[in-house]
Design a protein that fits this description.
Blueprint lengths: L1 E7 L5 H12 L6 H22 L7 E8 L3 E7 L26 H8 L2 E5 L4 E7 L3
Length: about 130
């Protein structure tokens, strides 16, 4: 199954993202733990795309794609920003970063997904979740 959602870079569209993900997860059997991981990871990725990628510019678009197979579900989140150096993301668990209010999104996504990859200078994030436990 392949599905796609496009919307303007506005955090008010997060409810559309949750409905989109839920509509997919209703069709694909996932256990409760994986369900929570997917919702949080995709929401974090979209939040990063809106806030950091598109800088909240509602004239720009965020695209969320989902591809599923019998053993895997993959989400791709794409923004229209300039990208970032995804090889140099500060570790939010280090003492100097613990009290910062941002910088945890990619860490969370990495912790929740089975695999992540950045492409297109960091404007495209692919997250994979293994369905076979």
């Amino acid at each position: 199954m392949n599905k796609e959602l496009r919307f303007s870079a506005d955090l008010n569209n997060l409810d559309r993202v949750e409905k989109f993900v839920n509509s997919i997860l209703d069709l694909v059997e996932v256990d409760e733990r994986l369900y929570g991981n997917i919702i949080v990871a995709v929401t974090e990725a979209v939040t990063n795309a809106v806030v950091h990628g598109n800088k909240g510019d509602v004239q720009k678009e965020v695209k969320v794609q989902c591809n599923t197979s019998d053993t895997l579900i993959e989400f791709r989140v794409k923004d229209e920003g300039n990208g970032f150096d995804f090889t140099n993301i500060p570790d939010p668990t280090l003492p100097g970063n613990v009290e910062k209010i941002d910088g945890r999104g990619v860490f969370l996504i990495t912790s929740l997904a089975d695999q992540i990859e950045f492409h297109e200078n960091g404007t495209l994030l692919e997250m994979q979740f293994n369905l076979a436990v």
